[in-house]
Amino acid sequence: MIPAVLPTYSRAPLHFVKGEGTWLIEEDGRRFLDLGAGIAVNALGHAHPALVAALTEQAQKVWHLSNLYEIPQQEELARRLVDASFADTCFFTNSGTEACELAVKMARKYWYEKGQPERVEILTFDGAFHGRSSAAIAAAPTEKMVKGFGPLLPGFKVMKWGDWEALEAAVSGTTAAIMIEPVQGEGGIRPIPDADLKALRALCDKTGTLLILDEVQCGIARTGRLFAHEWAGVTPDIMMVAKGIGGGFPLGAVLASEEAASGMVAGTHGSTYGGNPLGCAVGIEVIKHVTDPAFLAEVNRKSALLRQKLEGLVAAHPDVFESVRGLGLMIGLKCRASNADIVKAGYANEVITVPAADNVLRLLPPLTITDDEIAEAITRLDAAATDVEQALAK
Ligand SMILES: Cc1ncc(COP(=O)(O)O)c(C=O)c1O
């Protein structure tokens, strides 16, 4: 019999009843060290007092207002994001997928209004993940995502990363935008080198193509800068964010330059819940924290510490791990053993990690993780790796 919850996930048999900072507490009392943070969502950890206060304070005033009215919390959050980024304007969504939808629509509408309605094509890259809507799976059509869900939306072309000749040849009079994650998340924590991001920007400038960056997973201080593209010193025309921006409250956004957003006038787009007062009240608190230079400096210090300890872990378990990669606190351990087995061994040792493509183990801890918790993470990952080694030796 089909479960009451549609069985699209194969879930681990864990029942977490409480979260505290970097810890998740199982109903049987076990304390798990959470190096997944809901896949880069709980940027400030679980139940951060400032977020709890913002949410409960707003909950006592007004939960929801239609976007037919002005929403002061939305205006404040938009102002903070605009002030802290390349963007001139911002639209709030409920998720990364919904941000992807708007990014695509915005790029196409831009060219339509410029009198070039034939510029509809979006170029994307292999290994990417942009969400699960019809547009998002057409943008990143891995077999798992698209099999049985055809016909796929037209207007997307997937390029092989690194093949510049093919990319330059593909940018034509029908190209609207190039869309890319500065650090691929689901694809296996693959940072795009700064020089390549610069070259991509230059190609877009030369051809008038819009650059869309998907910072749903790598944005909001995850890499040690507010947005990952800042490391390369380039700016996009349109950017998608979600996950960390709500710290656990479903919230996303599309940020854009005034020029790129110029087609999006009243009546062209909307969302019932996007930018509602509860979500924005939490988002304001998150942004206050993650834009603090001292907070960002700590993320960088702790990522260097974790990275150094992980290099030792990899060296100690050469049959289990191959290498460490990533940026900031968005870290991938390329595995020699099965990443799924290591995740499972992690559960047995009360540490949570997340698998990714390319046999990578993802570590996306709360950005508030402490030095002691980093040491504890290594102890638990070491125990998990030892269990996997012992199983391999059998
Ligand atoms: C880079 C990227 N884009 C888009 C999405 C989709 O976001 P959501 O699951 O909030 O719809 C994700 C989710 O993992 C993501 O990592």
Automatic annotation (TrEMBL):
Cofactor note: Binds 1 pyridoxal phosphate per subunit.
Metabolic or biological pathway: Amino-acid biosynthesis; L-arginine biosynthesis; N(2)-acetyl-L-ornithine from L-glutamate: step 4/4
One annotated GO biological process: L-arginine biosynthetic process
Location of the protein in the cell: Cytoplasm
Xref: CDD domains: OAT_like
GO cellular component, one term: cytoplasm
EC numbers on record: 2.6.1.11
InterPro entries from the UniProt entry: AcOrn/SuccOrn_fam (IPR004636), Aminotrans_3 (IPR005814), Aminotrans_3_PPA_site (IPR049704), Class-III_PLP-dep_AT (IPR050103), PyrdxlP-dep_Trfase (IPR015424), PyrdxlP-dep_Trfase_major (IPR015421), PyrdxlP-dep_Trfase_small (IPR015422)
Enzyme class: transferase
Cofactors (names): pyridoxal 5'-phosphate
Subunit comment: Homodimer.
Protein's name in the database: Acetylornithine aminotransferase
